[in-house]
Design goal:
The protein is an all-alpha fold. 93% of the residues lie in helices and 0% in strands. The protein has 2 helices and no strands.
């Protein structure tokens, strides 16, 4: 029972961490500078 709760909590924290990093990168403009800038020229 404890292992399932630990795995659920770990997956939730990993998902929130990935979402936070993604939002942080978008607000910093990393994706616009890297991806769109390189593809446009």
């Amino acid at each position: 029972m404890e292992l399932t709760w630990i795995s659920i909590a770990a997956s939730l924290f990993m998902g929130l961490g990935a979402l936070f990093i993604f939002v942080f990168a978008v607000k910093k403009g990393w994706f616009r500078n890297r991806v769109f800038g390189k593809s446009c020229g």
